[in-house]
Design brief:
Low-confidence stretches of chain A: none
CATH topology of the largest domain in chain A: Molybdenum Cofactor Biosythetic Enzyme, Chain A
CATH class of the largest domain in chain A: Alpha Beta
Oligomer: homodimer
Number of domains of chain A: 3
Strand content of chain A: 15-25%
Largest interface: A-B, 69 and 70 residues
CATH architecture of the largest domain in chain A: 3-Layer(aba) Sandwich
Helix content of chain A: 25-40%
CATH superfamily of the largest domain in chain A: MoaB/Mog-like domain
Number of helices of chain A: 14
Strand order of the largest sheet of chain A: 2-1-3-8-7-6
Mean pLDDT of chain A: 92
Number of strands of chain A: 19
Radius of gyration of chain A: 28 Å
Shape of chain A: elongated
Structural class of chain A: alpha/beta
């Protein structure tokens, strides 16, 4: 049974162990294996030190069924994985001529000359089997040592992932009785607490073969269903989508900006944004999506009172009476953005991003995190909503505010009431 | 000698091992220790599994001098660190009444009632010494086991860092002959390759007691000097600042936006931005800094031709003849931003963020990554610069473009020529 397989992962390299780089390969491989239905047993992180590497290889060779070693395959002198394996195996290092030829061919295709230093990448312990690297010049290799099958992989994330997902996973599948390939489907919402979602998704009543998981992916919450691909998983995904209903912002492979773009283009509408506290963040989020020029007309970053008056036609007396963070001014900003453009829809954002609290001109408290939004449709309605974000940092408040605004637009474009069932204290 | 100390770090928790969360505590502790002059020997990542935890504790107790265990101290049933240690030590778990009282007092101060489940956090192996948690309710604890002194620490990053920097580091300092406390000074530049910087900083001729390091911190490059605090380090920092000269954007504790804000306020000037391909990203970067309202007047996100004409007064024939990504239009955008505001300085950005290449109206190639910038000063000069970014992703091109634009402003405010010695193929 796959559950009894012991799988260890060894990250090598001073730059990982000194914290110079976050070990994203380690978290990626953990997630990848989990999605295949197997759980890593241990992860080791080891310096570029020959004795330490030999010791860890020997330890793992006796305790694990599968050992994946990452990094240390490059041409420089601190790349020690092959040398350490040779010592652990008690085998000499020999030049693998076939791989030298392959490297030469790879360099030729890139119009580059292979340096003599690269020969080291073909100097490998006798008896290993080479694993081709389809996207780089450092080969992987594998060998049985005591109880464990060792797989050595390159540190470059793109090369590592390609090799693991491809050749290594298919080799593992032939050698071990792995669970059927798992599929992960991801659904994104935002603004609800995990306990709200647990309650909301209660009716799913999942069988033990399907796992439900949550993950904070600021500003979103990721909901994951993991199971063997098939009609059962598909049916549960449909059920989950129904339970989430209008709270589902987008699914795996998409983004909130992409969903908005798709709906804006389908509706043949154009958009303008008037931003104060978010200061261009909402516009930048939409424009990050290629093709946004098809519907995004223009944005106004009206940070000063003068900008709000001159660019958007907000009246000075409104600012003086109600303050910049008020429903009056939010609505005036959205109306002004329509007047100052040919866009069909305008969205405005004004708020207190912090770090300090404010007060209204009337002396009412205006705490940090208070943000007011207005969505105005040319020839149609204007909806103004008041929100209080509980996040403490200026960055988080601005990020949540941009997301909230874009979600108002998503709801409008989906034919939903712009106001959702959130309690607006987020 | 500190160099011979073997220090292991053990991260516990399924959420780390399944890749649900990146193990930022592990990379932080690695960097922290390195900055103190000591290198971690190994990192282990272990699931919430009693047998595995006991096995790893026993292994480390025989091979290491110092073992830092992170996580697994909470009140839920998958928090197993104390139980596993009790088994490894062969000691019973007992309630530590003193800690119960301290927890009660902590909850009282937060106006909350302690739940009975929290009692588990005071159920610890007999013989351990408690380490107070100044910022949370889970105590740490320490115990000698075989060769190693074990330190158990909470998983919440803020609590972990406070405990390690404070009580644990001072305990380690009394028990072991650690190197003198190190200081790290960081300097940020951008746009240069690491080999350029190595050459630039060649004259530093550092003694072996001072370490120079580089780290990519997109879009910046971080240059680090690590050494014992003192006049030698200070003198080398001055020398490094001189060698970097105008290429130094900011030092540790500041940011490019903060530097610009400081100089804008000192100069009593106000700013406006006209953005096309960055779409509000440059404005958002500046507004992320609290207090930016003191100088940031307004931004124009002019994504469409109509927006460029109507908001900034760009002439349609200019767009037709030169295209939106041209020096003519970049300069017209900056001039228009000055005309449409009362700001003293205007900065414009127009370019091809990708994913596709474009062509000019004359049929010349306009590859992805080509971005044109213009800085216009009211009553002064206009400087227009053309840049070709080599980055492949739309996100990276937009991020580098926003940084490049802000750096033009920094150079102007510092009294430097706006054009730097970069080769403008970045």
């Amino acid at each position: 049974m796959a559950e009894q397989l012991i799988i260890d992962f060894i990250s090598t390299g001073d730059e990982v162990l000194t914290g110079e780089i976050d070990d994203t390969n380690a978290s990626w491989v953990s997630r990848f294996l989990l999605e295949q239905g197997v759980l890593l047993s241990r992860r080791y992180t080891v310096a570029d030190n020959l004795d330490e590497l030999v010791a860890v290889f020997s330890e793992c060779s006796r305790r694990a069924d599968i050992v994946i070693v990452n990094g240390g395959l490059g041409p420089t002198e601190d790349d020690l994985s092959a040398a350490a394996l040779a010592i652990a195996l008690g085998q000499p290092l020999v030049i693998f001529d076939d791989w030298v030829e392959q490297m030469r061919a790879k360099y030729l295709r890139m119009n580059r000359v292979m340096s003599p230093a690269n020969l080291k990448q073909a100097l490998l312990p006798q008896g290993i089997d080479i694993i081709d690297n389809l996207v780089g010049t450092a080969c992987g290799f594998q060998v049985q040592h005591h109880r464990a099958m060792f797989y050595f992989t390159p540190g470059v994330p793109h090369e590592f992932k390609t090799m693991l997902r491809g050749k290594i996973w298919s080799d593992l599948s032939t050698r071990f009785n792995l669970p059927p390939r798992q599929r992960v489907r991801k659904f994104f919402t935002y603004g609800y607490g995990e306990s709200d979602l647990v309650e909301m998704l209660q009716p799913l009543q999942l069988p033990p073969t399907i796992t439900l998981g949550y993950r904070a992916a600021m500003p979103f919450i990721e909901i994951k269903l993991t199971a063997a691909a098939g009609p059962e998983l598909n049916a549960r995904c449909v059920q989950l989508e129904q339970l989430l209903g209008e709270r589902l912002l987008y699914c795996d492979g998409s983004s909130l900006a992409a969903e908005i773009q798709r709906m804006m283009i389908a509706a043949g509408k154009t958009l303008t944004l008037a931003e104060s506290c978010t200061g261009g963040l909402a516009a930048s989020t939409l424009i990050a999506e290629p093709g946004s020029s098809a519907y995004f007309d223009r944005g106004f970053v009206t940070y000063s009172w003068a900008a709000k008056c001159e660019q958007l036609g907000v009246v000075l007396s409104q600012l003086e009476q109600s303050g910049a963070v008020s429903e009056t001014v939010a609505a005036a900003m959205a109306a002004g953005a329509l007047n100052s453009s040919a866009a069909d829809i305008a969205l405005s954002i004004t708020g207190v991003a912090g770090p300090n609290d404010h007060v209204t001109p009337a002396g009412e408290p205006l705490p940090k995190g208070r943000v007011i939004f207005s969505l105005a449709v040319r020839g149609g309605c204007t909806t103004t909503l008041v929100c209080q974000f509980r996040y403490r940092s200026r960055t988080q408040i601005r990020q949540m505010a941009a997301t909230f605004a874009l979600d108002m637009l998503r709801r409008y474009l989906s034919g939903l009431p712009v106001k959702s069932d959130l309690n607006y204290i987020l």
